[in-house]
UniProtKB/TrEMBL annotation:
It comes from Anisodus acutangulus. It holds the Pfam family Dirigent. Keywords: Apoplast, Membrane, Secreted, Signal, Transmembrane, Transmembrane helix. The chain crosses the membrane at residues 231-252. PANTHER family: OS06G0727800 PROTEIN, OS06G0731900 PROTEIN. Dirigent proteins impart stereoselectivity on the phenoxy radical-coupling reaction, yielding optically active lignans from two molecules of coniferyl alcohol in the biosynthesis of lignans, flavonolignans, and alkaloids and thus plays a central role in plant secondary metabolism. Homodimer. This is Dirigent protein. GO terms for cellular component: apoplast. One of its GO terms (biological process) is phenylpropanoid biosynthetic process. Belongs to the plant dirigent protein family.
Length: 612
């Protein structure tokens, strides 16, 4: 008897196992049996109402980060919505469904929202079906496109995209609402188009099923009247949103937002901001967007607009193909073909900050640089024609502005976008002896050792301040040193490593892009900059170093002192020196303050380093 029982059980098991053709939890379905035939496109169209204030808002802020109220774009804000979807734009228009979900401000630099929404439909054959949207809503764009990632019920297997466009807005006075007084109701138009389903005949209406699997609507085609399910729906949604998104970005400054101001020629942004300061910025953006489309000259101009957030700041209205965001210092001819202007494109840039007194020294120095270097002179004494007799002077670039410093010129004339063609940039003083220096060899070594910031070693007894920059006999390059006891808290930090001086630095293109931003407009002597260079490269103790094999002599000519002015009974050089020291302190303070502010804003614990 027991034997018989176990025989039966075995049979049952076998029949279960042989039933499925692959494994226990999945089996293949026939597309045909599921009614999946040819895909068809459908177009859906409706309006979207986003009410961001008043008595019954449909969009509310649910969370924000500690830094959100300090972010110019409201980064970190989360909002929940349950917005009605209607047939027409009027608030009392027939409701076809609701948009429910979350959006989050996920962009640090512009208003780019992460949208996670379900459109839950209640009307007609769509009742009970939903579509899901997951995408990016670049609010400032005229048309925003978001992917439809799926759906349920009638929209099973849906795919497609939604396009949102600002339609209209309604600015209301909410008598009943004491706190806010006024609020915005966003009326959005959602055009749903091109819903696709499987059908044998694309010309006729698709036959679709509800989520219960019962055909809701039968087409006239008898072949499909047998009740087979036709499930596969691909939906393209053309959405015209009025106020797609309302809700609160309460502390965002409109004037700080990267608004395409020229699109709103007649609107005074600060004034708008003032007037509507109690409102959400998003709502304001919607107002602006909508005003943009109204009346006046902008009405004529209702075609598609260009707005490319990835363009350089301020150039968003240009098609990317025409944007030339970098330039060079190459001189061009006034005739002939532009493409034939440049016989040689120097790959390196050398600048000297000079006065006529050092003419002979500079002449000797410049001769050490080949044609592969663009030579640029910053004349701090205003004397330039006196250099004309030098052969190389004709092809050099002369910038003459009296009584300024190297870092002042560098900030004004060496913007990273201007010097972008150069692999390496030398920003050198005038009192350097280059007898033993070969520039091409120097660059080879810098490349070989991966130095983004470097300087040649200094000959012994030539104006040495720091051990680090002292040239060595036995190496090509060194990246660290020992200093006097107590000078270095960490062997990887200045002045023991990650350190060169400011008299003869050489920057890679990449490093210069960072260092340029660190130069302060008012701190012209650059004191303290050398200690902070390490912030621009990572790891600094490997990418900053001194080239020993190509060394120079620092002649320590105190040229700047003579450019000073005597004041309060002090000699000019004393005033200059005093200011140098003061600037160093100011720079350190600014850096420390900026660093603390950043860590605090990001909710991070500052590392227990460093004032530099
Ligand atoms: C920003 O929000 C924090 C709380 O998250 C608050 O303590 C701080 O006062 C707010 N700052 C401003 C400027 O509103
Ligand atoms: C939608 O379906 C629900 C439940 O199935 C039903 O209660 C409701 O009346 C339907 N609405 C419309 C407009 O058909």
């Amino acid at each position: 008897m027991a034997k018989l029982c176990s025989g039966i059980i075995l049979l049952v098991l076998l029949s279960i196992l042989t039933h499925g053709n692959s494994d226990e939890f999945s089996r293949k379905l026939s597309k045909k049996a599921m009614g999946l035939k040819r895909e068809k496109l459908s177009h859906l169209h409706f309006y979207f109402h986003d009410i961001v204030g008043g008595k019954s808002p449909t969009a509310v802020k649910i969370a924000e980060a500690a830094m959100t109220n300090r972010s110019a774009t409201g980064f970190g804000l989360l909002a929940m919505i349950d917005d009605p979807l209607t047939v027409g734009p009027e608030p009392n228009s027939k409701i076809v469904g609701r948009a429910q979900g979350i959006y989050a401000q996920a962009s640090l630099n512009d208003v780019g929202l992460l949208m996670v929404l379900n459109f839950a439909f209640v009307e007609g054959k769509y009742n009970g079906s939903s579509l899901s949207v997951l995408g990016r809503n670049s609010v400032m764009s005229a048309v925003r496109e978001m992917p439809i990632v799926g759906g349920s019920g009638l929209f099973r297997f849906a795919r497609g995209y939604a396009q949102a466009k600002t339609h209209t807005f309604d600015f209301k006075t909410g008598d009943a609402v004491v706190e806010s007084g006024e609020f915005l109701t966003g009326i959005s138009q959602l055009i749903f188009g091109l819903s696709r389903c499987h059908s044998t005949d694309s010309e006729t209406d698709c036959e679709l099923v509800t989520k219960m699997g019962t055909p809701m609507k039968h087409s006239s085609n008898s072949r499909r009247r047998n009740g087979t399910m036709r499930l596969f729906v691909t939906t393209f949604i053309g959405v015209v949103f009025g106020f797609f998104l309302g809700v609160t970005f309460p502390t965002i400054s409109l004037t700080k937002l990267p608004l395409p101001t020229n699109l709103f020629p007649s609107i005074d942004l600060p004034e708008m901001e003032d007037k509507f300061s109690g409102l959400s910025t998003q709502a304001l953006l919607n107002v602006l967007n909508s005003l943009k489309g109204r009346g006046g000259s902008s009405r004529k101009n209702n075609g598609p607009k260009i707005w490319v957030p990835s363009n350089p700041r301020g150039a968003e209205r240009l098609p990317p193909g025409i944007v030339e965001s970098e330039s060079d210092l190459y001189t061009r001819r006034l005739w002939g073909l532009p493409s034939e202007d440049l016989i040689i494109k120097p790959r390196y840039l050398v600048t000297f900050t000079v006065g006529l007194k050092q003419k002979n020294n500079i002449d000797a120095a410049v001769k050490k640089f080949s044609e592969n270097f663009t030579i640029m002179l910053f004349h701090y004494d205003g004397l330039t024609s006196e250099w004309d007799d030098l052969e190389w002077s004709q092809r050099a670039i002369h910038v003459s502005i009296p009584k300024q410093t190297k870092w002042w010129y560098a900030k004004r004339f060496l913007h990273p976008d201007i010097v972008a063609p150069y692999d390496y940039i030398f920003i050198w003083d005038e009192d350097l002896g280059l007898e033993k220096f070969n520039a091409e060899e120097y660059i080879k070594l810098v490349r070989k050792h991966g130095l983004d910031i470097s300087q040649p070693g200094l000959a012994p007894n030539s104006g040495l301040t720091w051990q680090m920059t002292k040239g060595r006999n036995d190496t090509e390059v060194h990246k660290e040193t020992e200093e006097k006891p107590g000078y270095c808290t960490d062997p990887h930090l200045p002045p023991c490593a990650a350190f060169v001086e400011i008299m003869a630095p050489v920057f890679s293109r990449k490093a210069w892009r960072c260092v340029w931003h660190m130069i302060q407009n008012d701190l012209v002597h650059g004191w303290g900059l050398d200690f902070a260079l390490r912030r621009c490269v990572e790891p600094a103790h490997e990418k900053i170093g001194v080239v020993d094999a190509q060394w120079i002599v620092h002649q320590t000519v105190p040229s700047l002192g003579s450019q000073g002015k005597s004041e309060n009974g002090k000699a000019p050089w004393e005033g200059v020196r005093e200011r140098c020291r003061r600037e160093w302190t100011m720079f350190q303070d600014r850096m420390a303050t900026a660093e603390m502010a950043y860590y605090k804003a990001m909710g991070m614990n500052p590392p227990n380093s460093t004032t530099n």
